[in-house]
Amino acid sequence: MIDWSPDRAAVDRALARICDHAASHFPPNLLEAIRYSLAGGGKRFRALLLLAAYRAAGGRADASTLAAAVEVVHAYSLIHDDLPCMDDDDVRRGRPTVHRAFNERVATTAGVAMVPLAAHTAFTGALEVGLTPFEAAAVAREVMIASGAGGMIGGQLLDLESEGTSLDLDGLERIHRGKTGALIRASTLVGGMAAQATGDQLHALAEFGEAIGLAFQIADDVLDITQTTERLGKTAGRDLDLNKVTYPALLGLESAAERAEKLVDDAGGVLAHVGLLTRELETLARFVVERES
Amino acid sequence: MIDWSPDRAAVDRALARICDHAASHFPPNLLEAIRYSLAGGGKRFRALLLLAAYRAAGGRADASTLAAAVEVVHAYSLIHDDLPCMDDDDVRRGRPTVHRAFNERVATTAGVAMVPLAAHTAFTGALEVGLTPFEAAAVAREVMIASGAGGMIGGQLLDLESEGTSLDLDGLERIHRGKTGALIRASTLVGGMAAQATGDQLHALAEFGEAIGLAFQIADDVLDITQTTERLGKTAGRDLDLNKVTYPALLGLESAAERAEKLVDDAGGVLAHVGLLTRELETLARFVVERES
Q1: Which of B137, B144, B157 sits opposite A116 (nearest CB)?
Q2: Number of structural domains found in chain B
Q3: At what angle do helices A64-82 and A104-128 cross, to 10 degrees?
Q4: In CATH, what number is assigned to the domain containing residue B189?
Q5: How many CB atoms lie within 10 A of CB B38?
């Protein structure tokens, strides 16, 4: 069993540091909303993945600030996903969503403010592991590209707009490559960039991230059906209520689970090929399909 | 009379190019909303200012893409400012606001997607004028800092939250240094960075931008009282309706107008001191207080 708690604690401390640094120039309630969303008790999956990729590629410095950057983007995406004009959800990880705990105005503003905050955090975090400002800028750009309309934000909108429409497997996959895949891909890629991995290794890390990102979404769809609201920390069974096209809806529950398994196995093969399949990365990839929430 | 139409046309073409490049990887309705907001027929004041600062500092290349970056941020700020949970406005520059022309979900998403889009545009635009990738990254960072919680986005929220509260001149100024000042400051600063101005010149350009940014907001407050909705292209008299603290409310109409004049005069002096007060920059600064909409 790998103990992830030191990594999680380091990322939590990095997130607290970011907020402390911002305290002098952010409006207080905006900062409070950002803190609230970052302290949501998530699994820090993207940050752990970044740190594991960094170490797999030979990185030895403290990359916790860099890892915090992808968690800032992820937390932002959850705030906006829960807004009344989006998924309109009241509960997230067992707590009131940000627009419920604060209000819609603060939630909308906090979310969008977290985009430049993530860029800044990625840049600073990349400098901290010893990259040049030029390399650090490339890292920040990857995080921004993954967050943007061609990545996460665009996928999120496509996902919402697909409610009640028919969609084939290709269409569904396109949505989720953006919505879930882009940031997970950026996490593994940026981990490699921070460790100055070779071109082949970076390519493999990106492919690995993209595949397990897709598997993550398929597993999410499966859990929405098989788990309770209590276990999930968010409303279960919503996909069915919203008449959403999901992997289980298209493939059946069992085939969907099998597809996620296969993606994870293949992704492991890609990494093994460039000598980067560490036990940490393998464990995180397996977690994607074996988790219960 | 300076003819700004070639600059405006170049910026409009740059904005159209940005959208064309995005067409292959942005969701279609998201891109349409972004195009709609960018084609709103604004004065392109921030872009003109950037171009004038660039030329004042000796720049000779085509900086229209870089200038477009600050217009992307500005257009984003208008989309979100008009949202139901913000200012809740239906008309902007004589057209339906983005959430009216599309819907709230698309408007929220388009706005936030324009933040990484602006970072990307600033970086690309800086490369186009011949900066190194390192210098271009510094330019993109200035645009992001100006957009963030410590700048425009934070100021916007503070402004909305101040409705119905009492506020002194210092408090009001703090809001507007963020809401309006930060991006105008970034426009003149980045124009100078693109032309590789000296440290003293950059400092003066930033100070100039900050001062006329504040004058711009004071003039806005004055126009809200003295002009009609038709002339403004947005609802006039809203500040009074919302019981908002404004410069005219604190200082009286005449003193407010005088304060804006003085800010503009002093700002010109700062630029003259470092040899950058061109006729173009002087004209744009005067425009701030002499415009009728």
Answers
A1: B144
A2: 1
A3: 160
A4: 1.10.600.10
A5: 22
Q: Which ipTM score applies to this complex? A: 0.90
pLDDT tens profile A222-245: 998 888 777 777 677 777 777 788
**What's the CA gap between A209 and B129, in Å, rounded?**
35
Strand partners, A95: A92
Q: Which of B115, B138, B128 is nearest to B59 (CA)?
A: B128
Spatial distance between the Cα atoms of A284 and A262, rounded to a whole number of angstroms: 15
Burial B5-19 (b: 16+ CB within 10 A, else e): eebbebbbebbeebb
Neighbour tally for B272: CB within 10 Å: 14
Residue A218: the pLDDT is 94
State whether B150 and A26 contact (CB < 8 Å): yes
Among B291, B126, B132, residue whose Cα is nearest residue B220? B291
Task: Characterize the bridge pairing of strands A95-96 and A91-92.
Answer: antiparallel
Longest Cα separation, chain B: 52
Instruction: Suggest the residue from A34, A78, A108 to mutate for an interface test with chain B (most B CBs closer than 10 A).
Output: A108
In terms of residue numbers, what domain contains B10? Answer: 5-290
Predicted TM-score (pTM) of the model is: 0.93
Q: Which residues pair with B96 in a beta bridge?
A: B91
pLDDT at A288 over 90: yes
pLDDT at A190 over 90: yes
Closest CA to A61 of A72, A71, A50: A50
Give the nearest partner residue to B133 out of A22, A137, A144, using CB atoms: A137
Of B25, B123, B140, nearest to A150 by CB-CB distance is: B25
